[in-house]
């Protein structure tokens, strides 16, 4: 479970309130996770625990997911 201590702080990174910065935030999170999985090669248990936590957070409520923004009643556009 040592590898899980580098994955869990990713869930605590706050999302930007500005919709224009959301794409940069998502790109950072995805690139960090890809780099982490390629470099550190976490064990299967840590990977399953992390992916379960991400899926539970993403599907627990609107706007909770780390991969997309909170669009309440309007489209999130950069313009």
TrEMBL record:
Pfam families: BC10
Subcellular location per the Swiss-Prot or TrEMBL entry: Membrane
Chief localization: membrane
Signal peptide (residue range): none
Keyword Membrane: yes
GO cellular component terms, semicolon-separated: membrane
Keywords of this entry: Membrane, Transmembrane, Transmembrane helix
Function: Acts as a tumor suppressor; induces growth arrest at G(1)/S checkpoint and apoptosis via RB1-dependent and p53/TP53- and NF-kappa-B-independent mechanisms. Modulates expression of genes involved in the regulation of proliferation, cell cycle and apoptosis.
Similarity annotation: Belongs to the BLCAP family.
Protein name per its UniProtKB record: Bladder cancer-associated protein
């Amino acid at each position: 479970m040592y590898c899980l201590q580098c994955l869990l702080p990713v869930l605590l990174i706050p999302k930007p309130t500005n919709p224009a910065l959301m794409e940069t935030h998502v790109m950072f999170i995805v690139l960090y996770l890809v780099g982490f999985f390629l470099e550190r090669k976490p064990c299967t248990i840590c990977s399953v625990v992390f992916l379960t936590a991400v899926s539970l957070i993403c599907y627990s409520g609107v706007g909770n997911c780390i991969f997309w923004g909170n669009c309440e009643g309007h489209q999130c556009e950069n313009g």
